[in-house]
Write a structure and sequence with these properties.
- The protein is an alpha+beta fold.
- The chain is about 15% helix and about 35% strand.
- It is built from two helices and 17 strands.
- Strands 3, 6, 7, 8, 9, 10 and 11 form a seven-stranded antiparallel sheet that branches. Strands 12, 13, 14, 15, 16 and 17 form a six-stranded antiparallel sheet that branches.
- Strand 9 and strand 10 form a beta hairpin.
- The N terminus is likely disordered.
Amino acid sequence: MTGGSIAPRAGSLRLCPHGGYSNIHPCSGTDGRDRGTSCLSSGGWPRCGSDVRIGGMPVDTLACPSWCVVHRLADPAEPGDQGTHYGRTFWVALNEDEAVEQGVTPGVLVQLTAYDADGERSTGIDLVDPSGTAAEMTSAEARALAAILISGADMRSLPASDGCPSWCEDHHPDLPPDGGIELYRGMVHYGPAMTMTASGPALSGVLVKVQVSVRGEGDRQERDLALAIAHAVTGATSAQAYMIATNLLDVADLCDAG
């Protein structure tokens, strides 16, 4: 996209109180009126597409998409910038016993975002893990990742069995890194590494991977579904994976509806 300086760059992004995120500035206040913040609550601000003025100067904007709930107005200091639109956040909590910055429960966020620059709009679906690491997808990629998550959740939900699970593609003894055979804890079985490369307008090229593993045997089995965005890995239950998949499908529908 043109005017790429307004778009988030690959890496860790910080959630803001309005439901958006940024790797530029954290939001500094609940009303988002500080021009240094990454997104602005629409309350008290002109809607995009209206006669917007910043510092007394008119700024051209495009009309809000139908799903916009929060937007960052155009920054006159950025040539071509016409603002950013954020849809509502779809959130799946992962571990309510762990508190993170601003008291938010760790979770996986899915959100529709549009970047306006030079009279054109680029739209992407953001997937953000608890560390703030993100991938940005097209609607087709979001649907493909939803199918991968559902497949992984199905694998993780299969009944325990002795020996290799039906989906096992690789296994090895579960030994501590510095331990001997006397500390053998059974086998670790790995399912297929199911991957998708995100090609959204701002975070293109980020690899997303889902892989299921099982440690131990019989009733002592420990199952894990790992969702990896770039090099950041998040564990999820089958139920959580199904919920993330549902959110991806819902946001893909919003994206396709325009």
